[in-house]
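Let us work through a complete example step by step.
Step 1: write down the sequence.
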Amino acid sequence: MTATTVDLVDYADATRRYDPVIGIEVHVELGTLTKMFCPAEVSFGAEPNTQVTPVSLGLPGALPVVNGKAVEYAIRIGLALNCQIAETCRFARKNYFYPDVPKNFQTSQYDEPIAYDGWIDVELEDGTVFRVEIERAHMEEDAGKNTHVGGATGRIHGAEYSLVDYNRAGIPLVEIVTRPITGAGDRAPEVARAYVQTLRDIFRALDVSEARMERGNVRADVNLSLRPTPESPLGTRTETKNVNSFRSVERAVRYEISRQAAVLDAGGTIVQETRHWHEDTGVTTSGRVKSDAEDYRYFPEPDLVPIAPPREWIEEIRAGLPELPVARRRRLQGEWGYADAEMRDVVNAGAIDLIEATVAAGTSAAGARKWWMGELARRAKQDDVTLEELAVTPAQIAELQGLVDSGRINDKLARQVLEGVLAGEGDPEQVVTARGLEVVSDDGALLAAIDEALAAQPDVVEKVRGGNLGPVGAIIGAVMKATRGQADAGRVRELILERIG
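Step 2: predict the structure and record it as tokens.
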């Protein structure tokens, strides 16, 4: 029985009877101005085949030159992942034939990576910390991009013809390869997602890449195998290629666990192969039989000399590393006074930078969290966008909370002001003025509204004078309605009791 004809095993049942082992290869495009081995410009969205040189097109006689900034970025990544940095390393030719590889080989690193033997701690949503060991982080160049035209899936099978854009060919990459990740059990999908997200955050903190997964700046190849027990030898793995969202990483691992369990239960054999992830259906399908290293016929790149980064330079780079995401989160949590659960919610919502900027703009951590994790989070979910994509800035939120703190508006009015800001009506101060939303602070106007409400409900006066303060709420509500919610409820209550007393 083949892998494509079996049913899925229930996930909980699969992880109860098999031990999943994962391995993840993450490719990150480096944010250099030029390509890895030539001066061709690097920018997203350019016209096809306009950012090329003889080197990136693989034309005869064109010789590569290593991009020094790419080497620096690779060392930054290696140091942030607690890796050893090689005293000397070299490039190799990885030979394979595909239209998006114009040289018929990829210039990569094989047995001598620039960084090796590292680790990174990842934190799961419930606060559990899981250590992932890094085997290597090596430099290489990206391939071009194939576009298959026609057919139903956008893949080569069934397409009428294919187009190749070589703008991406030669863009600097660092590939980070884990050692087999064991011991995750039924949390393997969650660990995989958290690991890739942690790397993305590190890339951004290091300023080595925009790390936008939707643009392909970060791509993950997810390896998975099953074995009967944690003591058993590793099983045969599959590699799901180019998964480009955190959610998809988690779903792909979960699907492969259920699929492989079904194959094994049916007496089948797992094929070592690459597989394609389908976001729309949430399944993987067979790609090609997975090549081993010897199939690529690696040999040292004869046109490039070995790289021997001076130890002094490495230490200079180490000294200049920024605060990494985990340390930053812990520091900010202490400064802000958030509980563990509150901080996890902020992290999961992608709101750390926004809250930090809001606090820096002059409001309290509690006030910043109230807006970003409350009304704005609701609005982002409603509009199916991220918090960063909302049409409001941290400075505007700080200004909004400042209006509340000063008593000029209350929380109810502030929500109306926020609606105006999101609608493009200006900063909070401008919206308050234009909409006339400031709290009514004139006691005379409030007393007039109170007298009118008391006259309409004379029985309330007698009840309050008799010691029953419950009906005061009805008078407050009437006054708030009369002032369109622009009265200070606390002040209204005080005035009502004075009036009745």
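Step 3: interpret the result. The chain has a mean pLDDT of 90.
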